[in-house]
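As a point of orientation, let us examine one representative protein, giving the amino acid sequence and backbone structure tokens.
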Amino acid sequence: MPERVALYLQDAHDLRDGLDYVRYAEQRGFEAVWQAESRLVRDAIVPMAAYAAVTERIKVGSGVINNWTRNIGLLAATFLTLDDLAPGRVICGIGAWWDPLARNVGIERRKPLTAMRETVEVLRRLLNMERVTFHGEFHHVEGIELDVVHGRREPRNVPIMIGATGGKMMELTGEIADGVVLNYCVPPEYNDEALEQLDRGARRAGRTVDDLDRPQLVVCSVDPDHDKAIDTTRELLTQYMAQQPHIAKASGVSPDVVAEIQSILGWPATHEQIQKAKHLVPEELILRITASGTPEEARAKVDEYRKHGCTCPILYPVGGDVRLLIDTFAQQ
């Protein structure tokens, strides 16, 4: 059987170029494409719809939207609409977002576990075409259902995958979700503890971690020139260490290094600031938490993530030639 592999697209490319990359990934045997939605840059839903419209087989996932900014009825209607466009090919990847970004746009991420549990329960019931009344702490709905008059009324097969990083959210994912989207910028051995946490949660629901799909985002910079690939990743990590400190923590990066990078970078970070701070990211860290280097080096690193429980690497092409990355991991 060919190995499972997926493509991750964010904002480093023209959106219309992304359509070409997704079509090419489908031709080369990629299982899925996941569209990012993290910083205030590119909504996930519009690109997902575009990818679904120009392909026939590849799955299309949100990698990941957050559970705070879309009303639960709209969220369900959105994924119903995507499933109308690409029946059986849509994946809902959803996460708890992160500070300081959430705080900076006025969202108080209190009780994130309760909020996520309620979101998943109501969303799943709505996509199952149930009539739902639910009064929780974060969601209050009264007798609502997806009002399909002209179309398919049967339950929709939209897997709900939680983008979890912390241990408690990982356990909750094991209990309530169809799978997990494991984070990027972590070493492969990070997965070992994550799988134990997932298994603890899964057993509360009468299953095990083996019943969960476990795709994982992997930063991947591929270039025939090893040093060029490394330097491209260094720029990305400089930005991520400053803006997403929860990932830095999971990566084991020193808080002092993160603080120094943050003292140089503004929000949004400029190219000049990134260039000034990037020397603070050592090559050892790049090699430990990303798949960067020549095609052979990148494949070897991705295999490490597979050995530590990743079921389908979701490759994030950092700069360079996206088609080279696709060719490097092509399954046909």
